[in-house]
Specification:
The structure is a homodimer of 336-residue chains. With 336 residues, chain A is of the alpha/beta class. In chain A, 25% of the residues lie in helices and 26% in strands. The first copy, chain A, is built from nine helices and 15 strands. Chain A is globular, with a radius of gyration of 20 Å. Chains A and B meet through strand 12, helix 7 and strand 13 of A and strand 12, helix 7 and strand 13 of B.
């Protein structure tokens, strides 16, 4: 029988970053675990997700999710095994998906965890292609950008977790051509292997030039993970009634001042462009539909994705800093 | 019988403006009128429209409408009487709407003019509320911003032709509250008379402050005629799933450099905002629907609009310069 721990290690926000986060902004600490109340479960986390959007929550500003609190643990998606349960709905031994990552063990209400089948797919996939990463790519293309068969689609951050998924899903949905930008020659090579039709290294080629070469007739859809000059170049390149899914702006996450918006935004008037922002939580109603399609695409080999693993709870802060630097290819994860 | 003229006076673009246009950029000239070919009509223009979007066409840049050519006549919407016809479809004496303003007489293919009933409404209305001005307001609210009953709607340039129409149409469509910004105390007073629930003078009150006071709980829809700091303040104020109809950016039309985009555009991600640009020509399919509804609203007194008239073809350039300066209330027109 598994020994039931009475403490857990967790990562807390030691101070708010100014600009790029440093190790000083994080602290590893050990805290007591509470006794289980009726309806609660104790989960031993096995793998946790590290995501760019967390940077925004480290600032003390009102946003779509509340900011992290200083001296409180960070959180994020995780999959683990239930090792104690006071709920009839969740059995010991079950693997579950939940939102209390950044710690080795978590006490949670049974109703806040979702059972996952780790025989059908590795635990990490439920944080990636079968989880919010894949769903983000899917809803961005479908509900947000209203992608149509035959569209030319541009995805920035193409080698990131969402970017890898978006390119492949766009092809699966019938895109005529999918173009990606990424931050190194190796990443460019990798996204081409994954099914992107064209890709360029934005550190070597200005985005406008890369786009013009890859899509001389323009693009219909832009899936924006980056913001900044990527968004501006995409606006130049979009055709009439072109659509932008604004998913992320990683180029600006560490900015200490207000970043200028795209200076060519007025082009949206004449070209009838639509720019629509989203966070995946606004599209929960599409999760079932996505899981069904993604399961098929995975089985058919149309959808896959790289995973970059770091090991141990103490590796999580550096994993996050590296993610913001683009050190990952595909999904950044920490094994616990 | 009307004497048939053999010449016409017209305004040509003498040179391209840099920044705000001046009289030097325009020239009044007299040219010969061609003999009518089969299928053509000769129209004596009675009233012509003066519109902000023309400023963009004075630059030598590719846009959604081709640029004006130096030494060629300007054009724009006009209504006039047919005084000679070589078409069975259009009779002498008929009033018609067409695109060859900025001249006193025009020779046109009969198929490019549309008959209007000047007994039912004055000729100028077919350039304004019953024409592209009203249609612009209507499609911006409906098809572009997807306004719903109960929405709080903000309209910039509320005292302009499109702005006056947009506020009243928003109310007719069931908006809970309609807020306007305008550039003088008199304009503010006027838009309140026309049915706006709240209005403020953006030259006296920063847009953010005016919006916060008028809509403490935020806005659902922003109808943007202005761009610049108006758009930025609106993005701050928009609620989750808020929508922007980008119709114009008059604050930037005379800019000589690239204007910075809204520095808070990233808020579109968390709030799930949609910014959609449009020009009315993209929504021709809604013209019939609009005319039917507008006719009813006019009859019911729900929709009216001011008209600022200038007299004589030689007054047209100054009318245009004044329009860009905001000297008009409602529709700017030149009687010929």
């Amino acid at each position: 029988m598994t020994e039931i721990p009475t403490t857990t290690r967790q990562i807390v926000l030691a101070s708010r970053p100014t600009g790029a986060p440093t190790s000083d902004n994080f602290r590893l600490e050990t805290v007591d675990l509470p006794e289980l109340d009726e309806g609660q479960v104790l989960v031993r986390n096995e793998v946790m997700s590290v995501d760019p959007y967390m940077r925004g929550r480290m600032n003390d500003v009102k946003s779509y999710v509340p900011p992290f609190q200083v001296d409180a643990p960070l959180d994020g998606g995780a999959v683990g095994e239930v090792i104690a349960s006071r709920s009839d709905d969740v059995a010991v031994g079950q693997h579950v998906l939940h939102g209390a990552g950044w710690r080795e063990h978590a006490v949670l209400p049974a109703r806040s965890v979702r059972a996952v089948d780790t025989d059908a797919a590795p635990a990490s996939r439920y944080l990636g292609l079968l989880g919010l990463t894949g769903l983000t790519a899917y809803v961005g293309l479908t509900a947000v950008a209203e992608m149509r068969e035959g569209d030319t689609v541009f995805v920035s951050g193409a080698a990131g977790a969402v970017g890898q998924a978006a390119g492949q899903i766009a092809k699966a949905l019938g895109a005529e051509k999918v173009i990606g930008s990424a931050g190194s020659a190796n990443k460019v090579a990798r996204v081409l292997e994954l099914g992107y039709d064209e890709a360029f290294d934005y550190k070597e080629t200005p985005v406008r030039d890369g786009l013009r070469a890859a899509a001389p007739d323009g693009i219909d859809v832009y899936f924006d993970n980056v913001g900044g000059d990527h968004l501006e170049a995409a606006i130049d390149s979009l055709t009439t009634f072109g659509r932008v899914a604004m998913c992320g702006a990683i180029s600006q996450y560490n900015a200490t001042g207000a970043a200028a918006g795209p200076s060519n935004l007025f082009q949206a008037i004449g070209k009838g462009l639509t720019l629509r922002g989203f966070i995946v939580g606004q599209y929960d109603h599409l999760a079932e539909e996505y899981r069904a399609r993604a399961t098929g695409w995975l089985a058919d080999g149309l959808l896959t994705g790289d995973e970059t693993f770091r090991d141990g709870i103490d590796a999580a802060p550096l994993a996050f800093m590296d993610l913001l630097d683009g050190a990952n290819t595909g999904k950044m994860l920490v094994r616990l």
